[in-house]
Amino acid sequence: MVYNKINKQFYNTILTQAFSPCGIFLITGDIYGVLSIFNLSKIVNPEGNISKEELTPKNRITVKEGFQINSLVSTQQHLLVGGYGEIYAYLWKNIKGSNKNIQPAWSIELPSGQDDFNKAEVNSMSFNETSGILYGGGGDSKIYLFNLERRTILKVLNGHTDYIHSINIKNNQILSGAEDGLVNIWDLRTYKITAKIEPHLNSKIARSHLGKWIGAVDCNEDYIVCGGGPRLTLYHYRFLTNCAIFPIDDEGIHVSNIFDDKVFAGGRSKLFYQANFNGDIVTEIPTSGATTYSVIKQSNPFKILSIAGSSAKIDISLNCMYKDQQLSLY
Amino acid sequence: MVKDPNSSAPLKKKRKTVHGEAETESDIYQKICDNEVKEAKSRDSAKDSKLYYQTLSKIHEQLIKVRDLKLLGPKGSSEQYESLSSFLAEVVINICLIKKLNRMDKLNQVSERDSLNVEKQKCDSIKLNYQNLVYEFHHLLNETNKCLAFKSEFENIELVSFEEFMANAPESITSEFKNLNLNDSEATHSLKLATLEWELTQRKNLAEQCKLLEDQKKKIVSDITEKNAKLNEISPLLNTILKAAKPLQEHLGLSTTEMREEHPLALLLADPLYILYANIVAYKGAFETTLTVTIVGDKDEATQFNEAQEVVNANFLNEDDSEPEFDLPEVEEVVEVKKRRHRKAVQQVDPFEEKKKKLLEMHPLKVEVNFFVEDGPELSVNFSYYTKLKLVTVNSKVKVPTKITANSAKEILAGHNILSELIDSDTGLESPNPSTGYLLKKMGLGSFQLLIPDIGYAYGWAQSVCGINFLTSKKFCEKLSQQNVEITLKIIRKRLANRTHLARQMQQLESNILPSIPKSIDVPMTHVSQLNKWTSISFQEFCQASFTQTLIDEDFVTSSDLFYSVKIVRGEAVLETLVVIKNTYPTPAPLFALNLNYKGELNSTNCDEIRDMERILNVEWDHGVKSSSWLLSAQLTYLCSFLDIYLETLDQKDFPPNTKFIRTISGRNRRRPFVFRKIGTGIFSQY
Prior knowledge:
The structure holds two protein chains of two kinds.
Chain A: H1 2-10, E1 14-19, E2 25-30, E3 34-39, H2 41-44, H3 52-55, E4 59-62, E5 71-74, E6 78-82, E7 86-91, H4 92-96, E8 106-109, E9 122-128, E10 133-138, E11 142-147, E12 152-158, E13 164-170, E14 173-178, E15 183-187, E16 192-197, E17 214-219, E18 223-228, E19 233-236, E20 242-245, E21 253-259, E22 262-267, E23 271-275, E24 281-286, E25 292-298, E26 304-309, E27 313-317, E28 325-328
Antiparallel strand pairs in A: 1-2, 2-3, 3-4, 5-6, 6-7, 7-8, 9-10, 10-11, 11-12, 13-14, 14-15, 15-16, 17-18, 18-19, 19-20, 21-22, 22-23, 23-24, 25-26, 26-27, 27-28
Chain B: H1 5-21, H2 25-42, H3 45-71, H4 78-149, H5 162-168, H6 171-174, H7 185-252, H8 258-268, H9 271-286, E1 292-296, H10 299-319, H11 331-334, H12 339-347, H13 351-359, E2 366-372, E3 378-386, E4 391-399, H14 407-413, H15 434-443, H16 452-455, H17 460-465, H18 478-510, E5 530-537, H19 539-544, H20 549-553, E6 562-570, E7 573-581, E8 591-597, E9 601-603, H21 608-619, H22 631-650, E10 675-677, E11 683-685
Antiparallel strand pairs in B: 1-2, 2-3, 3-4, 5-6, 6-7, 7-8, 8-9, 10-11
Helix pairs in contact in B: 1-2, 2-4, 3-4, 9-18, 14-18, 21-22
Protein name (chain A): THO complex subunit 6
Family (chain A): Belongs to the WD repeat THOC6 family.
Keywords (chain A): Repeat, WD repeat
């Protein structure tokens, strides 16, 4: 029925996004297990009116029907898709092509949980181009290090008691934020936890009605930013002391990133926020969905910020100040 | 000196002949010639040639001697002189001899040539003979080749096989081939001839048979035509007998069945309704017995009306020019057909009312179709035909069984919406006849919807079951009706059944009971949340709710849908639920809009979990038409379980867990386990 079909997309949620290495394509992964491919070139340089066709996906790939896509990572060769208990790799040249039936080039299965209930979502992935190592964390509370060339597991890191929401690599360290409320900092040379932050223990930061989970974590040389059930907070990297709590009106943080000298954050909130390191909010962008799950930004070949979440709509901002355009899954 | 003994004799003879010459010149010459010829013949040419060369050498020697003598000069003696002259004499003799030889040779040559010629001629004639033979030979060869290459007709004739021939042909023909040697070409040839001959006789026989049969056929055909003619003569006779018998039959009361009584009434029906009636009667005869169809109306009135209509039609051509005046408020002109009408018109002075009445002229006969559902409601559908609007309109009534007492259940059965949107977006609120709009505008009567309370709903399907198709030029098409009657009746029947199912479910819902669901359907059984206050609401009320805006914006709901409200309660938490049921229930499935009142208002615009609940309720239900008896209940049962799950995963202290699930929360979107799996008493998971 027509109604049902529209309903299905209407209730869609986008959990993750990625740009192609050339920067022209935007890929989104949703809860139905579908990758949607958008061509951004027309949207960035609008000549006259943009047709509805250009605002909807040019192609769709069903990775695994009904199993949500949790994370995407783009490498020079492949698009890596973190699914349910499995990581899939698609060749960029296939994605950009016009072929409708695209199959993954290869996939790696996670060892834990063999039945359909117990598999681990791959909630977050990070790729180191120089070492060729892919870091992935998710449903089984472990961080996996994969050698992408050989597609084997190099190392498994155990340090969380509940599933991992977000991981991030910086130099020789990994930061991981999880449902158990911990932010662990790992040393990659020894594979040991060197430090941990527990935001929910700080009464100023904790929000007991939302829980202690950490939804997102990011860092640069000097700062760590994290949030989730607890408020979005900035920490000094060296001293691990809290230096700013952002005054954001939200019901849980799912995205926090440091781009240049700004903190980008979103979650269950009507707005998407940008703040400076002093803790002052610089910009607010209204979002289409109830919750923001994914924000990505690129500067080359054009500047673009894409915000997606629990909506079939994707908000596009070209100047990071206000919403320019809205892409739609249907 | 030395003389050839052979040659001396002829020389003597020669001299003799020379002597005789003088006597008889011609004779002698002839004789000499003959002699010479004879001599030439008898001589051997080889010897002659030898003699010739000898003579020449003698002359040579003698001449040398002569020269020697001469060189001696005059000193020579007489002796010498004598020998010189004798030598010279000998030379001369020898020259004579040479001359003779030459002549002989010449003669010989002549005779030889003659004989050669003779031989040559002989040779030529032989050669000619030979060439003739060769030519003849080639000619014969060609002829034989032609003969060999000749293709006769018989090769194209399909002959019976050898076995068949041996079996069927008479003994006299076949006897000689009993011990047939296939290598013997002559035998096979004669076999062939025999088979051909046999074939020929057979064919002749068959041709004769064919001729006989054809004759028979002609005879039979003529017989048939004759008998047909006789039968044709009989038929008018039978008709007159039938006519004559009618009064008698009536008198005896033989033809008073219900059907026959209604038929004259059927003939008075308006064309479209007649088509409908005829088709439904036919359909009923073929398929269903629980359906009844009757004609409602007064017979006399109908006859009068039809006659009046004919008069109007007859005048129609003349009135063509005056038609524009039709819309002028001249009451007198409008009323002319019937006295009764005239009276009414005078009573109602209002010209507007009169115009309206005129436009809404209805045929006095209606067709009523009744549908029954076993121990359920009875639906009666009334079809009327508006002659001026050229529309069929429908009024429906439902007899709700006494068992159904709930308001919402009654509502869903009663009223017009039971027939609404039988076919996509066919609400009956707009006239399917495109000319209606113009007619109404001309008369200043406003929109068609205002007329509906007076005339009934003008559903598109009602037009098509009556054979009216506004898209094509054909107005009344029986075929169209026939195609549609079956489909439409089936749809109405299905609709009625679906509505009955809905009504039964609502009957229980209104008393806060979740209706039971067949065991074959997997539904969670152990929910704590309770249903409360099932009521129907209007479209306006639905729109006023704060959380329905997105559904309205997306055009998921229309004002012709049915709206209900129900509350699902567990402890302090109250889930306000608005249900949209489409006229075409159960496809698509009812839509749900949710709003949870628990520590603030949570709905799809600010809470992903509520949105996910809505998603599963609204998206993943595609059980087809057969699910109508339990679909709504199943969705509500799920909803109760979903509320349990949400509350239990949110706060385990206030809401002690009752539902079984594997993981409370998983994924970056902190997904709740809203997927039900029938394992044991039932487990919920995220996937």
